[in-house]
């Protein structure tokens, strides 16, 4: 079926040289994404390269979303009725799955609606960390890592989305972002 992936940290993983997908492998992957079955101008197969803006979803994700909306759709953590309980359980199960994938605790996983919102939340947390009392009760070594101050830099590349440049400036204690390689 698919190509076996060596587990990270194993000798097999370290020596596994990347190789391009075969035509058959590429076709099987494309078949997982219904939208990629379309043709566009001139009858050419659709190739979607704008995943920074919107990522296409494989059939298994579309099926899971449809199942949720058709059978369990309710506000997560907002109700005491059965649908809300089912929605909350599904949400928390997803958090556990993501945490396991990342090697994190479920309590460390925060879902946001997109990358921009996630980065904004992170910048907001850094900017608030300097407020008096904001980190009371937090281990001091850990708290110190969250406070940006004189000498700290927010480093971005020249290819960053404008929102990332503005976000870096919003961390009031930090200087303006410096682009990597710009000195």
Summarize, please.
The protein contains seven helices and four strands. The chain has about 180 residues and is mostly helical. It is extended, with a radius of gyration of 22 Å.
Q: What would you call the structural class?
A: mainly alpha
Number of strands: 4
N to C succession of SSEs: HHEEHHHHEHE
Biggest sheet overview: 2 strands, antiparallel
Q: What share of the residues does DSSP label as strand, in percent? A: under 5%
Average pLDDT number: 82
Number of separate helices: 7
N- and C-termini, Cα separation:
48 Å
**What level of helicity do the residues show?**
40-55%
Provide the gyration radius in Å. Answer: 22 Å
Low-confidence stretches: none
Overview of the structural elements:
This protein is mainly alpha-helical. It has a domain of 65 residues. 43% of the residues lie in helices and 4% in strands. It contains 7 helices and 4 strands, in the order ααββααααβαβ. The strands form 2 sheets. It has a two-stranded antiparallel sheet. Strand 1 and strand 2 form a beta hairpin.
